[in-house]
């Protein structure tokens, strides 16, 4: 099993229910692709290091997942690029020691 960390930032001007819905839809997407979510962390609203699409803050989410292959991360990447409510995302493969 390969381990990945996925962090993404959701637009701050959405209602709280919509922010949660975006995070849940991304979590469901990972589950559909047989990825096991080990850790899930909603980090709340934080200030961005620089403006992204004229936003100075965003809601941060972190998922730590395990997957057999990179199919789940590829699909997450594809959907995150399409989803207009996600400002940025980052997928990192965690090396086992």
Features:
97 residues; alpha+beta; globular; 2 helices; 4-stranded antiparallel β-sheet
Describe what is shown at a glance.
This protein is α+β, with helices and mostly antiparallel strands and 97 residues long.
Walk me through what this model shows.
The longest helix is centred in the first third of the chain and has 17 residues. A four-stranded antiparallel beta sheet has the order 2-3-1-4, with helices on one face. With 97 residues, the protein is an alpha+beta fold.
Order of strands, main sheet, comes to 2-3-1-4
| Radius of gyration, taken over Cα atoms and rounded to an integer in Å | 13 Å
Q: From the helix content, strand content and strand pairing, which structural class follows?
A: alpha+beta
The portion of residues assigned to helices is 25-40%
Largest sheet: 4 strands, antiparallel
Shape: globular
Q: Distance N terminus to C terminus?
A: 14 Å
Number of strands: 4
Question: What layout of secondary structure does this protein have?
Answer:
Layout: E1 2-10, H1 16-32, E2 36-52, E3 55-67, H2 71-82, E4 86-94
Antiparallel strand pairs: 1-3, 1-4, 2-3
Helix pairs in contact: 1-2
